[in-house]
Structure formats: structure tokens, C-alpha cells
Amino acid sequence: xxxxxxxSFESSLPSDRFIRIHKSFIISIAHIKSFSATIIDVxxxxxxxxxxYKLEVLKQLGYKKSL
Length: 67
What we know:
The chain is α+β, with helices and mostly antiparallel strands and 67 residues long. The protein has two helices and five strands, in the order αβββββα. It has helices at 6-12, 51-60, and strands spanning 18-22, 25-28, 32-35, 39-42, 45-48. The protein is globular. The chain starts with 5 loop residues before the first helix and ends in a 7-residue tail after the last helix.
């Protein structure tokens, strides 16, 4: 258990290797296997991609058009 927020962890991680996809999830970009408009597959585990983080995720992954 920790008193730190996910935002504080996010700020300490390298932004070119980790990305926030949801208010509850930060993931390693290297472990993304596939994604759709609402789900990201990280090594076989499906995690939600929230609308609020979707554009930043697509930008960081190099996509110009949204899903």
C-alpha cells in the first residue's frame, strides 16, 4: 500500500517508454500487443483505453487518425 498517487508515479517514469491509458493504468509501450478503440492488449491482458487518454495514446504510438 502506498500514499503516492498514480500521477506521481507517472511523472517519475520515462514518457517515451510508459503511457497512461486510463485513470487506473500506466503501461509499458513495449508490451502493447494490439489495441482497438476501447481496449489495449498488454501481453494477453485486455485493459481499458479511456476516452480521455485515447488521443495522447494514439499520438505517442505515432497514429495520425483516431480509431
